[in-house]
Structure formats: C-alpha cells, structure tokens
Amino acid sequence: MKFAVKVVAATAALALAGVAFAQKGETVKIAMIEGLSGPFGNVGQNQLRTWQFLAEHLNGKNNAAGVNFEIVGMDSKGSPQEAINTFKSAVDQGFRYMAQGNGSGAALALSDALGKFNERNPGKEMVYLNYAAVDPALTNEKCNYWHFRLDADTSQKMEALTTFMKDQPKVKKVYLLNQNYSHGHQVSKYFQEGMARKRPDVKIVGDDFVPLGQVKDFAPYVAKIKQSGADTVVSGNWGQDLTLLVKALNDSGLKIPMYTYYASVSGTPTALAAGGASEVYMISYGHSNYSGTIGKLQQEYQQKFGDDFYTLSIYNGLVMLSEAMAKAKSTDPVKVAAAMDGLRFKGFNGESEMRKLDHQMLQGLYIAKWQKVDKKNPYSVEKTGYTFAPVKYIESYVAATPTSCQMKRP
After folding, report:
1. Domains in the chain and their CATH numbers?
2. How confident is the model at residue 398 (pLDDT cuts 50, 70, 90)?
3. Which tens digit of pLDDT belongs to each residue from 298-311?
4. Which of 17, 194, 295, 408 is 20 to 30 A from 210 via CA?
C-alpha cells in the first residue's frame, strides 16, 4: 500500500511537471484572416509573409515558451461579411488563435462574432490578435476581452500627430482626405478636435471621404485641394487609396506637406519617390531605420522578398503571445488571454504594455519624415533611395488616450 501511494504521488508530480512545461515544442496555429486579394491584396500578402517570416525567426528556442508558430493565411477579400465566413471556416478547422488588421469594419465584425462564439462554446475559445485595425471603438464601447490590439488606435496616433503639428508654423490651412469608413471618419474627427485644442488658428479648408478601394483617379480630389488654397494635407488613407493620391499629386505638380498614417505601406513609397523630394510625414509606432534585431530583420526581409517589413506590430504579437504562454505554462487560449491581460514585455520599441482595462497596447510613437537615405538613416524603402527617418519620439504616456471600456470578463 505504501509503495502504491508513493507511485501515485510520483506519477502526480510528474504529471504536474508535464503540465508546467506542456507548451514547449507544441505547434500553435494562427489563422491569419485578411484581404489577400482584391484592391488591397498587396498589403495583405505582405503581412502574411511578415507573419510567416517572423514565425520562422521566433520559433522554438527563440521564444520564451519554446513553441512553434504556424501561420495559415485565409483570404477574406477585404470584406467584413467574407471575414465572418472565413472566421467560421477557421473555427471548423479547430484554430484557437486568429490575427487580422486591415480594415476596422472587418475587425469590428470579427470581434463581435468572436465574443459571441466564445460565450456559447466554452472549451473552444479563440483569441484575436489585431495588428492594424485602429478604430477606437474596438477598445472603447465595443471592447472585447478576447480581442488584443497591437497597433496604436486612431485617437492615440492623432494625439501624437497633432502634438507635433501644433509646433509647425507652416500649417495654417488643412485639407482632410480620408477613406469613407470608420477609420477615415475617426481620423477627420480626432484631427479637428486635437487641433481645435492645440492650434485653434488652423483652418479646415476641406474634409472629403473617398469610397474605400474604388477610386481609380484622384485628380478631381487634387483639383479640389488646389482650389481650397490648402497648405497641408492630412490623410489616413492606406494601400492603393494613398498610392493613387500621391500619383495624382505628382501629376498635378502640387507639392505641399502631407501628414499620413500609412505612407510606408506597399506601393506608396515608390509613388512618393517618383515625385521627387516631397515633405511627407508619417505617424506610427515605428520607422524604417532600426538597428539591432529589428534592423537585421528589415534588411533580411527586403533581401528575401524584395519588399519591406513595415508592420512591426506583428513582431510584438508573437513576442507577447509566447511570453504569455510561458507565464501561463500553457497554450490554452483561456489561460493565455489571462496572462496577456495587463502583460508588460520588451517589444521592438522598448517597454510595451497590453493595458488591462481595454486590451490596447501602450507604446511609444514616432513621427518619421520622408527623405533621401544618408549615413544615419541608410535603409532604402522599396529600394527607392529614400527612407522614413525618425524626427520625433513621443512617449507612450503622451499618446495614451483614456478608455470608456467596460470589459465583460469570463
């Protein structure tokens, strides 16, 4: 009997040890639900390659949990409805983690569907890593415990951008040109609110919204910008909606400063370079000229794919996920979500925090300026001979906007 008790006790101890280190060597599959075709397919394809490229670099012994990440691309064609259908397919295939970023419309639909699914299916819960959808509603009135945003939201970026712009004396007449969906309307709203507080003398001389991914010729919009007498353009456009705007500006010969969110995204840098030296600024959590690990990854990515690694939030997503798995000693999404809740970790930009209140990443932001490469800023974006050089770093506490989130926790 004593021997039996000892055997049982030893077996139990071994079982507990096994649980403690169960995550090591496991494969964690992530469904990357994104528009991989259609008008913004080039951006989605870049980001799928980025997820897979970083997974290769951060697998096994190269992450805190010792897990292997496998990223599976699933094409939502950029449509919120298709994103829901793709989510259902991911559920059917047994995925427990998903990632998405391009388009807040799809993000809001996915977050809502995920919350309902997890509530109705205990034991099958999924976690959502949002690496680029920036509508503040996702971490405010529509916040969801299972949703974790890795990017700064529109209000955070605009708080940082207007803090910078208020000190630019040339900014007097601003034309706002944004995409006609939640993100574009938020850019317009938060810019006007921010500048009213910081530079009430600045006039808004235009506030236009363009159909998402449908405009092929931006010349009429550029004509309106010229006619308005604007000395500055502010745009949250991304993908072809920014690339084609830049081409139209080039064709018109209109060279006025432009403040952007996504000027580094596939295709736009090449269009900027074609127009020669232009005064273009970008607000983001990063820039193009890192040293150390990120700098090496940026160089390797460009050499391997002939494209740029610009969605740096994906790096933080995999680091945060692995550290949470190590902390939870498990890959179970329920335990991992609890570990990510309020987690602080060292990301590509230094100390980062997944805010417990609303699951919004808190991190420093940069204003980067488009310029020719030089010794200090040598990375050639899209091999154009130009780069986005950091000109101002904004601490996370400056950009950290309050939240109205009343999170329902499991």
Report:
1. 23-152+293-362 (3.40.50.2300), 155-284+364-399 (3.40.50.2300)
2. confident
3. 999 999 999 999 99
4. 194
